């Protein structure tokens, strides 16, 4: 068995792992890269595999950095099944359609500029039919049961606790009567985050591809994070400033709505307007409401009481562009939750442009910010940022609340691995910047005597059968 890394190596985004045996050829994830010009270049083509010969694609979850290049796979000739959990299929359809809108809009703007310059305009690298074909080729897989995805290959999906429908995958390959198994952790969630269940680790494997986004640190405790968020909000209310929250439409947004609903219900915060300014997040929240079977125990109780839906009903939903623009006219404190989570596109960029230069504004960063993104520059304290060619002074207060992350911190990652450690697997660290991977590798060596491998893009790893 050979596995080649075509993403999430020496970086967090672009997950794509090409798995080959003598009988089969599959791809685990087919995600987009995020952050900077190099990411844009990599996103112009599908992973460098022969998609006309690929037996299957299997997704760990529906975030864009795990499924965003699927339309390019269709363009490259892929015609077989794309396997995922039922909730992942629904969310991936939503995300891919939204991503197409953003891509089409950006391409139109670029082509208008090229036309004015007398240069050749660009052809789209994918279109609506490619996206709809991806959705038609998706096939649901169950949890916990071996499921055949290619000759001699089965996969088992277990809860990853990251977003609705997210799973870790065990790939079991049989050749010449011998069996080997490789676990792909996917994105692992932090223990105790709301709505979704905690990660359920596998207990044996020959090799583990393990995420390491926060391999070098732990998040603040949830209780401390919630108290810090409460303090930030109360200060914003005192100064009558807007609170801008760049948030991923799937996962993080639903967590935030849960926490806000709970705070208003328990009167830990005074009531103030909250705008969910993201059509995709609104649709994603509806999908969350349709899958109570995936909730953790606490959310199931709230759902049965009807409290979960009552809390969500208090949020102002702004679906149209005109509704979004009207938020600029709101006086006094309000919270605006909008995408994208790394401030690379979407409505949050408009709100930042209108409000970053105001000292009374608060910007609350609640998730990982990739190198090269606007969100990363804000977190790193840039005094000015460029938005659509205009230099904007950063006078707003910038807060980073890592405790809201949907990614496991170092301790949770080690806890997840401890369940599989007795089987003595080889470990390959992926989905992390080099600093985070090196720190996690050191911890794995100290605690478990495991010497983790840290490959780069395009490297091939072989597993004996």
Question: Keyphrases for this structure?
Answer:
globular; 465 residues; Rossmann fold; seven-stranded mixed sheet; 15 helices; six-stranded mixed sheet; Metallo-beta-lactamase, Chain A; 2 domains; alpha/beta
Describe the structure.
The protein is α/β, with parallel strands linked by helices and about 475 residues long. The protein has 15 helices and 21 strands. The protein has helices spanning about 35-40, 65, 70-75, 85-115, 130-135, 220-240, 250-265, 280-290, 295-305, 305-310, 320-325, 345-355, 375-380, 410-420, 435-450, and strands at about 1-5, 15-20, 25-30, 55-60, 80-85, 140, 145-150, 155-160, 165-175, 180-185, 205-210, 245, 275, 315, 335-340, 360-365, 385, 390-395, 395-400, 425-430, 460. A hairpin with a 2-residue loop joins β9 (about 165-175) and β10. α4 (about 85-115) packs antiparallel against α5 and α4 runs antiparallel to α8 (about 280-290). The mean pLDDT is about 95.
Give a quick rundown of the structure.
35% of the residues lie in helices and 19% in strands.
Structural class: alpha/beta
Summed up, the domain count is 2
Radius of gyration (Å): 22 Å
Give the strand line-up of the largest sheet. 6-5-4-3-2-1-21
Number of strands: 21
Unreliable residue stretches: none
Shape: globular
Fraction of residues in helix? 25-40%
Mean pLDDT: 93
Characterize the largest beta sheet: strand count, sense, and whether it forms a barrel.
7 strands, mixed
Number of alpha- plus pi-helical segments:
15
Percentage beta strand = 15-25%
Please identify the oligomeric state: single chain
CATH class of the largest domain, named Alpha Beta
CATH topology of the largest domain: Metallo-beta-lactamase, Chain A
**Which architecture of the largest domain would the CATH scheme give at its second level?**
4-Layer Sandwich
CATH superfamily of the largest domain: Ribonuclease Z/Hydroxyacylglutathione hydrolase-like
């Amino acid at each position: 068995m050979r596995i080649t890394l075509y993403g999430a190596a020496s970086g967090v985004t672009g997950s794509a792992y090409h798995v080959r045996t003598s009988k089969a050829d599959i791809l685990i994830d087919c995600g987009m890269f995020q952050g900077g010009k190099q990411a844009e270049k990599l996103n112009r083509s599908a992973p460098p595999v022969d998609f006309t010969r690929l037996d299957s694609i299997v997704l760990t979850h529906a975030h864009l950095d795990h499924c965003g290049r699927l339309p390019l796979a269709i363009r490259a000739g892929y015609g077989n099944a794309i396997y995922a959990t039922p909730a992942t299929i629904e969310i991936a359809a939503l995300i891919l359609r939204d991503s197409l809108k953003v891509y089409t809009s950006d391409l139109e703007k670029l082509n208008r500029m090229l036309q004015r310059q007398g240069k050749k305009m660009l052809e789209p690298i994918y279109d609506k039919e490619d996206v709809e074909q991806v959705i038609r080729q998706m096939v649901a897989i169950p949890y916990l049961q071996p499921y055949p995805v290619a000759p001699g290959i089965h996969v088992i999906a277990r809860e990853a606790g990251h977003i609705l429908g997210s799973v870790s995958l065990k790939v079991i390959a049989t050749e010449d009567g011998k069996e080997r198994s490789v676990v792909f952790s996917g994105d692992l969630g932090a223990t105790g985050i709301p709505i979704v269940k905690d990660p359920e680790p596998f207990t044996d494997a020959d090799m583990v591809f393990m995420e390491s986004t926060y391999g070098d640190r732990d998040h603040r405790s949830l209780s401390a994070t919630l108290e810090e968020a409460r303090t930030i909000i109360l200060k914003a209310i005192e100064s009558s400033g807007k609170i801008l929250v760049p948030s991923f439409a799937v996962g993080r947004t639903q967590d935030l709505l849960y926490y806000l609903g709970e705070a208003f219900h328990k009167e830990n915060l005074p009531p103030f307007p909250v705008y969910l300014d993201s059509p995709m997040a609104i649709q994603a929240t509806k999908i969350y409401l349709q899958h109570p079977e995936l909730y953790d125990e606490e959310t199931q109780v709230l759902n049965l009481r009807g409290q979960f839906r009552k809390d969500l009903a208090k949020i102002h939903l702004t679906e149209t562009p005109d509704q979004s623009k009207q938020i600029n006219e709101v006086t006094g404190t309000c919270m605006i939750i909008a995408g994208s989570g790394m401030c690379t596109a979407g409505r949050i960029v408009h709100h930042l442009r209108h409000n970053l230069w105001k000292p009374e504004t608060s910007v609350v960063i609640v998730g990982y910010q990739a190198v090269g993104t606007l969100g990363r520059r804000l977190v790193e304290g840039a005094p000015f940022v460029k938005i659509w060619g205009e230099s904007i002074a950063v006078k707003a207060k910038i807060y980073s609340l890592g405790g809201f992350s949907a990614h496991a911190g170092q301790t949770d990652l080690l806890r997840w691995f401890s369940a599989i450690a007795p089987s003595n697997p080889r470990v390959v660290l992926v989905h992390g910047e080099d600093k985070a991977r090196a720190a996690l590798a050191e911890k794995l060596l100290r605690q478990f005597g495991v010497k983790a491998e840290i490959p780069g893009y395009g490297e091939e790893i072989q597993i004996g059968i």
